[in-house]
Specification:
mainly alpha, two-stranded antiparallel sheet, two-stranded antiparallel ribbon, 6 helices, 5% strand
């Protein structure tokens, strides 16, 4: 059942990512359209840059949406890890490794994010699950920040490229020669 939920979450992340990318791309084109003035129009290069931007944003937005979904499941995973820790006796490093390995079988992202050697001690009020998920939150926050930076960078490069690729609209005067208004 967890595999099916993971597949559904992955597909929905891709769908939401593509939808978000389409919205961002359309908003950029509307802003450029409003700023371009009446003497310029979009060229073929402008539309090609938009297509490339849409592909790149779809990838980054899908990764962004997926990481936010993973981040929302961290509290459930913390409880799952705590359920594998023995309640009595001293908690050893082997117990922590075993609990993380068992949790990784049910929720695969745990093994990719958490290194058991980095989980040294836990506060008196905390739990192993909380320590592991704190590490996951730090990693996922950094991951989300990088996705947002890539999205902003792609949008900035695209806006500059599109603005430079706009064509002038030729105007006709009474003697039927083409003139370009500056």
């Amino acid at each position: 059942m967890r595999v099916l939920n993971s597949v559904i979450d992955g597909v929905s992340s891709i769908g939401w990512g593509i939808a978000l990318a389409v919205i961002v791309t359309l908003l950029l084109y509307l802003i450029i359209y409003a700023m371009r003035g009446t003497t310029k129009r979009f060229s073929i290069i402008s539309w090609a840059v938009g297509g490339i931007l849409l592909i790149l944003l779809s990838i980054q937005c899908s990764l962004l949406v997926g990481s936010i979904k993973v981040k929302n499941t961290c509290s459930d995973v913390a409880a799952l890890i705590d359920s594998f820790i023995p309640s009595e006796g001293v908690i050893s490093r082997d117990n922590v490794k075993d609990a993380i390995a068992k949790a990784s079988k049910q929720v695969p992202f745990v093994a990719n994010i958490v290194d058991t050697d980095e989980i040294e001690t836990v506060d008196k009020d905390g739990s192993i699950g909380d320590a592991v998920m704190h590490k996951a939150y730090v990693y996922l926050n950094w991951y989300v920040f990088r996705r947002v930076c890539w999205i902003l960078g792609f949008c900035g490069v695209a806006v500059v490229s599109i603005m430079y690729s706009l064509e002038r609209i030729p105007t006709r005067h009474s003697n039927s020669r083409l003139y370009y208004d500056d």
